[in-house]
Amino acid sequence: MTMLTPYALSTDGRATPLGIDEKSPLLSWRLRSDRNGDAQTAYRIRVTEGGTERWDSGRVESPENSGIAYGGSVLRSRARYEWTVTVWNADGEEAGAADSWFETALLHPDEWTAVWIDRNPHVHPPFDPPVVDDLTDRTRHLPAPPHLRRSFTLDDAPVRARLYATARGVYEARLNGRKIGDHELAPGWTEYGTRILYQTYDVTDLVTASENVLGAVVADGWWSGFVGFDSRHQAQHYGAAPQFLAQLVLEFADGSTRTIDTDGEWVERPGAIRYADLLMGQYEDASRAQPGWDAPGYDANDWLPVRVVDPNPANLVAEPDEPVRVTEELHPVSVTALGDGRHLVDFGQNLVGRVRLTVRGAKTGQRIRLRHAEVLEDGELYLENLRTAEATDVYLAAGQPVEVFEPTFTFHGFRYVEVVGYPGLLHAQDVVGRVLHSDTPFTGTFECDDEMVDQLHRNIRWGQRGNWVSVPTDCPQRDERLGWLADAQIFAPTAMRNADVQAFFARWLADVRAATTPEGVFPDIAPRVAMLTEGAPAWGDGGVIIPWLLYRVYGDVRTLERSYDSMAAWVDHVHRHNPDLIWRNRTGNNYGDWLQVDADTPRALLATAYFAQSAALIASAARVIKKDAQPYEDLHARIKDAFIDAFVEDDGRVVGDTQTGYLLALAFDLLPSHLVEPAFERLAADVEKRDHHLTTGFVGVALLCPTLAAHGRADLAYALLHQDTYPSWGYSIVHGATTIWERWDGWTADRGFQAAQMNSFNHYSLGSIGDWLYGGVAGIDQAPDSVGYRSLVLRPTIGGRLGFARASQETVRGRVASGWRLADGEVVVDVEIPPGSTAELTVPTSDPSSVRDADGEAVGAQLRLESGTYRFTAQPPTPKKGH
Ligand code: RAM
C-alpha cells in the first residue's frame, strides 16, 4: 500500500527553478494514495537555506496542496532553498513527505552590474561578411549576428557558478566551447518595452581554474528581425540591432565571489552566420566559421571592441516559466530524389522547428538550400500561404567530409522540405526534424478506438505544441505568428487539459497587461506589434477569460489578483462607450465569428454576449479576491436584459439564427429560462437541417459539442465529431491534415486551396473541441463552483462510433482519470479521483438499477465518490436519434 504521498513538487509552477525573483514564491505538490477515501488533512512545510532553517510552517490543518505562499524570512538573492513537505492523511496520521528546491536569482535591481553591449557600428562595416549574390531584397540588408566573447583567467575553480543572461534579440550563450543550457530562442518574446526575461544557468561544471571564455551569438529575433505582417515595421520593431547582457557570478570555496559582466572589455566579430531571421530563415557560410572562438587558447586579436549601448539594465524579470526547447526529433517518412538535383523530404507531420542536415562530401562553398512548406501542390512545395516569410535556410559548405547544419535562430512551420544542392543522394538518416516549442509539460492523455477521433486529438496536440513558441501564437509558418488573444482564450480550456500551462499563461498574461493600449484596454495581440491596437469583442476579452480559467483550473489566485484591475478596466471601458449595454461602439476590428461558414452571427449580438460574460467573470473574480462584486453582478444582469430585448424573440429565436448565436446565448446563460428549450431546439434543428454540419467560426466552435451534449443531444455532438464531409474536423483529416487548419475550407476538393493571403494549416482555434474530448467524451469535468478539480463531475458520454474512450489529466490535486468501454453488452466505467477531491459520477446507462460496483453491488447511476479508483458496470444507454 502506498500511503498518502506528495509528488511533483513545484515552486511557482516549475519543478526546480534555478532563478526566481518572486518575493514570496508559491509552493505546490500533488497527492497520490492507494487508499480510497484518502485526503490530506494537514501539511507542514520546512525550508532551509545552507542548512539553516528559513521557514517552518508548523502543522497547518488544511487540505490545500497548491499555491502555498512561502512565509519565511526574506529571501536572499542567488541562494538555494531546499524545502520539504510532510502531509497528514484522512485519519490524521502523519503520512508521506517529499522534497524539492528552488533558487533565487537577482532580487534587487541594483545587483545588476552588467551593461547592454552590441557590435559597434562605427568601427565595424555594417555588412560583413559582404553581401552574397543570392540574397533576396528582404534579407540582403540583414546584418550578421555578432559573436561576442570575453576571456578571463581563474586561479581556482568556483564551487558555484551562475550565469544570468539575456538579449534584446535572441541569443545562445557559450562557455569554454560548449552551449550553455538547452534553451532555444532565449530570452523569448515579451512586451520588451516593459519587461525582458533573463535566464539563469548553472555553469559550475563548465568553469575551470585556468583561462575561460564566455561567449554569445546574438541574432535579431523578435527584437530587430521580421515580426508579424506589418510591412511598415518589418525588421526592427523594437531596436536596430541585437544586444546582449550577462552577469556570471562565481563563488569560491573561501567565500569570495567574482563577477564577469558584459562591459566594454568584450570583443566581437561575425562568424559563419550571414543572417538569421525568425521568418526569413538562416544563411550560413561554414567557411567563415571561427573554430574555437568560444574556447580558451583562441587568438582574438583581430576582434573589435563592443559598444556599451545602454548602461542601464532595467526591466529585467527572471524567466518564470519553461523556455522553448527542442522536445522531439522526427525522421522523414520519405526522401524523394526529384531527378534535377533536388530532394523532397516528407516528415509525415506538420511540425514546428527546423531541420538538422548532415552533409557528406560537399565541396567548399557548395550551396545547399532548404525551403519549407506545410503542404504540396502538384508534388511541389506550396509556398504562397507563407506570404512574405521566406522560410529558407542556406548552407555554404566548408568542404569537410562530414558537416552538420542546423539553424539556431529561426523556426519554420512545415511538413515538407525541398533540399537543393545536396551533394549526391540524400539519405533519410541525414535529415532530422527538430521539434521545438515552449516546453510546458504535456500531462493529459486521451484515446479512443476511432482512428479519426484519435487523429483529431493528435492534430490538436501538435497544434498546441507548434503554436506555443514563447507566446501563444495563431500560426507558426507565415509572416504573422502573433499572440492573438482570441485564439488563446478559445483554445485555453483545451490547452489546460493537454498540458500544465499555468506558468506559461501566467507569464504571457503579464505581457497582455503590459500591452494594454494607451487608454488602458486590452489589445488584439500581445506582445503588441503591428497596427493592431484596441481589442475586438472576444479578442480583448481574452484578458478577462484566461486569468479566470487559470484560477478555475489551477487555483491561481495570484494571477487573478494581478490581472484584476486590467480586467475591470476592460469591462468599464466597454461599458463607458456603450451605455445602452449593447456593445456597438469601440469594437476594434470587430472580427465577429471569425471564419464561420456562411452563417454570419450579428456582431452586436456576439459582442454583447462577451460583454455579459466578462462582466460576470469580473464579479466572480471580485468575490475570490474580496473586492466588491456587486457592481459587476448588477451590470451582468442588466446586460443580460438588454441582450434579451435586443436579440431574443418571444419564440426563442435568436436574431441571425446562426449556430454561434444560439451557442453564445445558451452557453453564456443569456436566455430567460422559458426560452432555453425553444432556443436549443432551433440550434439542434439547424445542425440537423445541415445534415450534421457546423457553421461555427472561432468564437462558436468551442461551445458546439459541449452545449449540444449538455442539453441532451450528445448524439448530435458525436455526429459532428464523426462528420467527414465539408465542413467538419473530419474533412481535414480525410484530406491528410496532421494539424488543425485555420479554415474549414483551407483546401476543398471543389475549390482547391483557399486564398493564399490567409490559409494556415496549423492554427489551433478550431481545435478547441479538444476540451470536449476530455470533458464530454471521457467525462472529466468539475462542478461550477469547484476550483482546481476539488469537486469533480464525471459524466462519461457514450455515443457515436466509439467502443471505448478514456482520458487522464494531472491536475493540481493529482491524477484524474475517466473512461468507459463497451464489452459483452455492458458498459464498464473506470474512474480515478485524487486524494482530497470528491466526484459526482453519472454512470451512462439505460437502467440505473443495473449499475454495479466492483463487488457486484447495485449502487445506482448517480454516485458520490471520495478519492480513489473505482470500476462500475451497467447496461449501456440505448442509442439516441442520429446514431
Ligand atoms: C488572423 C489570425 C488570427 C485571428 C485574426 C483575427 O490573421 O491568424 O488567428 O485571430 O486574424
From TrEMBL:
Presence of keyword Calcium: no
Domain Bacterial alpha-L-rhamnosidase N-terminal: 158-328
Top-level taxon: Bacteria
Residue intervals of the Alpha-L-rhamnosidase six-hairpin glycosidase domain: 443-775
Entries under SUPFAM superfamilies matching the protein: Six-hairpin glycosidases
Annotated GO biological process: carbohydrate metabolic process
UniProt keyword list: Hydrolase
Catalyzed reactions per annotation: Hydrolysis of terminal non-reducing alpha-L-rhamnose residues in alpha-L-rhamnosides
EC code: 3.2.1.40
UniProt xrefs under PANTHER family: ALPHA-RHAMNOSIDASE (EUROFUNG), ALPHA-RHAMNOSIDASE (EUROFUNG)-RELATED
The protein's name in its UniProt record: alpha-L-rhamnosidase
Native source organism of the sequence: Cryptosporangium phraense
